[in-house]
Design goal:
Layout: H1 8-24, H2 32-38, H3 43-71, H4 73-91, H5 97-128, H6 135-164, E1 169-172, E2 175-178, H7 183-197, H8 212-232, H9 236-251, H10 255-264, H11 269-287, H12 290-293, H13 300-320, H14 324-336, H15 342-351, H16 358-387, H17 389-394, H18 397-408
Length: 418
């Protein structure tokens, strides 16, 4: 039995290859807190950096989403990959906190070129190919590929650091660098590879000449329509509000939290990549479950309600069971858990988006979440510095509960027909 459905590889192979090869390259992500700590930055300073990234995502998100709807979602995504190639290279050379903050500001703008566009691109490709039967299949396969690639990347990080030495000193252009620093450069290579592969994506885009004055007007027009549509739509408006609380819960176990969480468990820095790699493999297995289990529910909404409720129960269990062994088990499950949600939640949201403003609507949603991140990243950094990561993550139970209650209030009860 083939892993891919008939026609799936032909349509989506450039996306699958770009993300698999690009992500499988070892990079700094899973050890980014350790890199910053080694530079002498505090969790609060790092939290400010993440908040600045989110702030600049707010400023650029909706306009770049509209640009993607005008010029093409593939091109917009490639802009993100190319800019990230440059930014990751620049991060290799930072020595002061202000440098980190400047680069995170630019990274925030870069992220906006992909956020709404990349979520909408495969959905649009399936619709254009008249293969809506592949929509749920794509998000399941994509989730599996991402998790496997992430696991490979983390195992590669272990091998890379074994070869170069995580703390071995190197002199590069008059600067002293540790071995771990070079993971920024390998990560930059991954983004550049993804940038090149995406040229193979075929997307139907209305041919047009560039007219900056007209484009600015059209961007503004699409942005206003998307904002009004988001506010008035009974499902999307609730999904956005629910997403605010979901974002808070996610931030409370993002890399700024879970890496210190593992360090507090006594896991050495060089072993964190191994732990996260195994967690990613578990996530890959989780990503294959939704397309089978979802069929047993009367609708996607019912499945998602059950998934959100179970996630809350898993988190609350951390209140009642203490000790390093349970905490490590909790990490593996909680870290991988969104793989049970994303393959169903992504097409669920896309179903309610209007075709001609799909990327813009995704960007509107992303703006709201970025505002949330601006507020909460510094707070989370402060909580870690003063309470520790184990206690910090427990706060996520409150937004998870609120988000679940909002999601249950959505009236849509039927199976989706894309």
């Amino acid at each position: 039995m083939s892993f891919f459905k008939e026609g799936e590889w032909k349509i989506f192979s450039p996306i699958y290859l770009a993300m698999f090869i690009g992500i499988a390259v070892p990079d700094i992500d899973m050890l980014i807190m350790i890199f910053f700590f080694a530079k002498g930055f505090s969790a609060t300073q790092i939290g400010i950096g993440f908040a600045l990234q989110a702030l600049f995502m707010i400023l650029a998100e909706i306009p770049t989403g509209a640009i993607a709807d005008i010029y093409g979602k593939r091109l917009s995504t490639q802009v993100n990959f190319f800019l990230h190639t440059i930014l990751f290279t620049a991060f290799f050379f930072i020595t002061e906190a202000w440098m980190m903050w400047v680069l995170y500001c630019i990274m925030g703008i870069s992220e906006t070129f992909r956020s709404g566009a990349f979520d909408a691109l495969p959905y649009q490709m399936a619709k254009e190919a008249k293969r809506t039967d592949l929509i749920n299949q794509f998000y399941s396969t994509y989730g599996f590929i991402i998790q496997v690639a992430t696991a490979i990347s983390n195992f590669a990080v272990v091998g890379f650091l074994f070869l170069v030495g995580a703390t071995v000193k190197y002199n590069v252009f008059g600067q002293v660098h540790q071995g771990i620093d070079f993971l920024w450069l390998t990560g930059a290579a991954g983004y550049f590879i993804a940038f090149l592969i995406l040229f193979k994506v075929k997307e139907k885009v209305r041919k047009r000449s560039i007219n900056f004055k007209a484009d600015i007007k059209e961007t503004h027009k699409i942005s206003i329509k998307a904002l009004r549509y988001t506010k008035s739509h009974p499902v999307i408006s609730r999904l956005v509000i629910m997403g605010i609380f979901g974002t808070i819960a996610t931030l409370l176990f993002s890399d700024i939290v879970y890496q210190p969480f593992l360090i507090e468990l006594g896991i050495k820095a060089e072993n964190i990549a191994i732990i996260i790699a195994f967690a990613s493999l578990l996530g890959a297995l989780f990503s294959l479950i939704p397309k089978h289990i979802n069929k047993k529910f009367s609708s996607e909404k019912k499945y998602l309600e059950a998934a959100f409720a179970l996630k809350l129960i898993i988190l609350v269990s951390l209140y009642f069971f203490a000790g390093p062994i349970f905490s490590l088990v909790f990490f593996f499950i909680y870290f991988s858990y969104d793989s049970l949600i994303h393959p169903i939640m992504s097409p669920f949201k896309q179903f309610f988006y209007k075709k001609n403003m799909r990327a813009t609507l995704g960007s509107v949603e992303s703006v709201v979440y970025s505002i949330t991140a601006v507020i909460f990243f510094p707070i989370i950094g402060y909580l870690i510095d003063n309470l520790g990561s184990n206690k910090t993550v427990l706060f996520a139970s409150i937004p998870l509960l609120i988000g679940l209650l909002i999601f249950k209030s959505i009236k849509h009860k039927d199976k989706l027909v894309h």
